Amino acid sequence: MAGDTYSFTIVPEEYYYEFYSAGPKGLVKKIVSYRLIQEVPIKLYNLGFGDWNNEMQDIDDKINTNNQDRQKVLTTVAKTALDFLDKHPGESYFLQAEAVARGWATGNLSNLFTTGIRRSFDALGISASATAYIQNAPDAQLPGTTAGNIRAIITQKYYAMNGFQGFEAWTEWRRTGYPDFIQTSAASTLGAGRMPLRFLYPNSEVTTNLNYPGTIPIYEPVWWDK
Questions:
Q1: Is residue 34 within 8 Å of residue 46, measured between CB atoms?
Q2: What is the pLDDT of residues 29-44, one digit of tens each?
Q3: What is the mean pLDDT of the chain?
Q4: Of the residues 31, 151, 180, 192, which has the fewest C-beta atoms closer than 10 A?
Q5: Residue 197 domain boundaries
Q6: CA-CA distances (angstroms) from residue 142 to 113, 133, 153?
Q7: Domain count of the chain?
């Protein structure tokens, strides 16, 4: 990307990018956050940006630091967006493949599916292994039915995310039920056949939010999963 930028560090699981603005006000910690705000029918992310507030332990987008480096800061934010998209290459193709499989969009299902697999292999630095995997792995085949195709797409999407985007992988499983080989832990205290399906409300909600709905078990699905 053209233009001077700051170097940044990444917290992959949180989709946080951190860098420091340098100017007359000294070093100012900046945060760019990509937060998932919608799951269905398509995924939408919100880009949050601002100074880091130590008291809030969060982004404060109301602070106007004016460190006389506006262009450099904005160019850095844009660079994080490119990095975010680059780190989710397979997901884009799998999303498109699912849309085609469900009849929501048009496109070449097979090409989108195999391209998603190849891009996930590229992200791991093992591009040379993709072709053999696509040709021989049972999970890399599209059965030809709507349900079977969706199962194959989401399973491959899970493989691409596993170990890197744990929250996303868990969310895909909650949304679709795939992959269907997930087993309940033998040490689980939730009860037979139950799995975690939501986060619990934090104590701050219990004590300060008048609209707190009460304790909801962790195995109760969220609204879009019902």
A1: yes
A2: 999 988 877 665 556 7
A3: 85
A4: 192
A5: 189-226
A6: 8, 13, 8
A7: 3
